[in-house]
Structures are given as structure tokens and as C-alpha cells.
Amino acid sequence: MTAAYGPWKACVFDFDGTLAELNIDFAAMRASILELMTAYRIPPLDLPNLPVLELIAGAAETLAGHDRPRVPAFLQEARAKIEAIELQAAREGALFPESRLLLAELRRRAIDTAVVTRNCRAALLQVFPDLACCCKAVITRDDVGRVKPHPDHLLAALELIGAAPADTAMVGDHPIDIHLGRKVGAFTIGVLTGHSRREDFLAARADLVLDKAAQILDCLA
């Protein structure tokens, strides 16, 4: 018998790997930024596991220390490179079959939904053109100054939908989503439709781990 959770007033979802296929080539994305850093004579950062957005921010900070006027051009080129990779992945990607039904059923049950993603808005709309009609709020990296796992990203969504963290479930395919939810006091759900393992979510202290996001409906009180 499935355990009952909630009821929540809101569910906030990551996008890639949670509502849609995860096929972004992060290795190629990182390699393109490292190549750009070499072109700008930015020394490699001694943080091999640093995510790409944080890598770009760190490289820009390093560049500012010895050649500040070139920082805007570096940032513009870096953002263009990663957006091109995201858009290519989006053209080859698709929603999971149950995602639309999940969002519609949550709405029918008076549970507000939102999407919080480090991806760019153009890539989301390539995969899910009417996403804004299916969710109450969509917050991409284009919409906030500080992206997840910084709590501002999730808090911006909660403010738009008028939900308190304690009444919210944060759902994602990566431990970063669990860390984000825990920072603000939300219930956290890891889904195994990305690259993360159940053990990864348990180590991040997720409240619940599901095979896929659509199983949330089976868990609602």
C-alpha cells in the first residue's frame, strides 16, 4: 500500500529529467566554456566538479581581476554557447508522456504548480510551448539573479503562486533540488528519471524518492 503524504498547496518541479527527458550534453557544455576561458586567458579554476553556471561566474570573477573591460564580452559568449547546447537538446527532447496529465490533475485537485529550472526559457518553450498555461509560474535562470540551489530561485516561484514552503513539495531529478527544498523548508521528492540514483537522494536526505514524478498522484493524502 502506498503511503499518503501532503496534502500540499503547491508542487514545484524541476524541468529536465523531471517533466522532460534529460539529454543535455553537460560534458560538451563544460568543454566549450573551458575552451572559451583559454581564449580569454583565464586560468583553469581548481574546482573540477563546479557546475557550468558557477564555472562561468567564477571565470568572470577571475577575469575581472586582471581584465575587467572584457568581462561583458566573455559572459555574452559563454551564455550563447550554453544556450546553443540547451536549444539543440530541446529540439531532440520531449516531455515524459505523463507530464501534462500530472499537471492537469494537480490543478484539478487545487494544487498549484510551478517550474524552477537552471535552463533557459527558450529551451523550455521548445519542448513545452504552452508550459505557462499548464503551470502557475515558470522561473528559469533568465528570471532570477541567483539560480538554484540558492533559495531565492524557489522562493521567487513560491511568491508568485502564493504558497508557503511548509505547504510545498519540491520535486526534482538531482540532489540539488533536494538541497534547495530543504533550505526553504519544503517537502522534498527525488525522481529517478534523470541520472541520479536512489542512494544519491537518500544521501541528500530527500523526504521521498519515486520512480517518476507522475507517481506523486498515488501518494497524495
Q: How would you characterize the overall build of this protein?
A:
The two termini are 13 Å apart. α1 packs parallel to α2, α2 (52-67) packs antiparallel against α3 and α3 packs parallel to α5. The chain has 221 residues and is α/β, with parallel strands linked by helices. 47% of the residues lie in helices and 11% in strands. The chain has a 6-stranded parallel sheet with strand order 3-2-1-4-5-6. It contains 10 helices and 6 strands.
Write a concise synopsis of the structure shown:
This protein is of the alpha/beta class and 221 residues long. It has 10 helices and 6 strands, in the order βααααβααβαβαβαβα.
How helical, in percent, are the residues?
40-55%
Question: What is the N-to-C succession of helices and strands?
Answer: EHHHHEHHEHEHEHEH
Q: Would you identify the regions where 5 or more consecutive residues have pLDDT less than 50?
A: none
Number of H- or I-type helical stretches: 10
Largest pleated sheet: 6 strands, parallel
Number of E-state strands: 6
Based on CA atoms alone, the radius of gyration comes out at 18 Å
Distance between the termini: 13 Å
Structural class: alpha/beta
The mean pLDDT is: 94
Strand residues, percent? 5-15%
What global shape is seen? elongated
Spatial order of the strands in the main sheet? 3-2-1-4-5-6
